[in-house]
Design goal:
36% of the residues lie in helices and 12% in strands. By secondary structure, it is α/β, with parallel strands linked by helices.
Length: 234
């Protein structure tokens, strides 16, 4: 017998990346009514990420009326990140570090989750799934579990009914565990995109590509997307 799914409406934040894809697959395992939210914020791979979002939404048969794409180009105007500022180069992976990389978009997830909460209040969703992974938190302070615990307190204080919750089901997983979970759930990994700098072939050397490739290498699985380079990160 299959798992009985809840009919509660939930929102999945789907960037088009592997982590958000896996999180959406987990949500789909437990909930039958999914709404997908995607944010464009002037990132260099914006067009590719949007393409992946639409393909993933098609795969999970999310109705058009429950797909939302929101323009957050003000983050590009704020600047301060190599993801949005054309005068800054996306840096290559230099190994694990506690330093915040140039790709950090200042306070991005706060804006993203706030928009998800606003939409949740409008459509009656009670849960918001986000693919934050604490493995990234050495560089990204808004990927830590403590950050989302604090955010849920804010939501409780600042919403009409106080009953919306952000869920981070993969936050404690390593990348290889994310990949294995995606495989278990038959998530379409080939439709996901992680590269920070290129939208045709993944560069293979930016922080995001490196963490993804290292995860696949540790899992002993071939990454199905195309790369300009495939360094060995083991």
């Amino acid at each position: 017998m299959g798992i009985s799914k809840s009919d509660t409406l939930v929102i999945c934040l789907v960037s088009g990346g592997m982590d958000s894809l896996t999180t959406a697959a987990i949500a789909n395992e437990h909930f039958e009514n999914l709404a997908f939210l995607h944010l464009n914020y002037g990132q260099k791979t914006e067009a590719k990420e949007l393409e992946c979002f639409n393909q993933i939404a098609e795969y999970y048969q999310v109705p058009l009326e429950r797909r939302k794409i929101i323009d957050m180009n003000f983050l590009k105007e704020v600047g301060g990140s190599s993801l949005t500022d054309t005068s800054m180069e996306v840096t290559e992976f230099k190994g694990d570090s506690d330093e915040i990389p140039s790709s950090y978009v200042p306070f991005r997830n706060t804006h993203i989750v706030a928009l998800a909460v606003s939409w949740a209040e409008v459509i009656g969703a009670k849960k918001i799934f986000i693919g934050a992974v604490e493995e990234d938190s050495s560089g990204y302070p808004d990927c830590r579990e403590s950050y989302y615990k604090a955010y849920n307190l804010l939501i409780k204080e600042g919403t009409k009914d106080g009953d919306i919750e952000v869920l981070t089901p993969i936050i404690k997983m390593k990348k290889e565990e994310v990949i294995r979970r995606a495989q278990e759930l038959q998530a379409p990994i080939h439709l996901s995109w992680s590269c920070y700098s290129q939208g045709d072939k993944a560069c293979g050397v930016c922080d995001s590509c490196a963490l993804r490739l290292r995860g696949f290498q540790k899992a002993g699985v071939e990454d199905p997307i195309e790369y300009a380079q495939r360094p060995n990160y083991l």
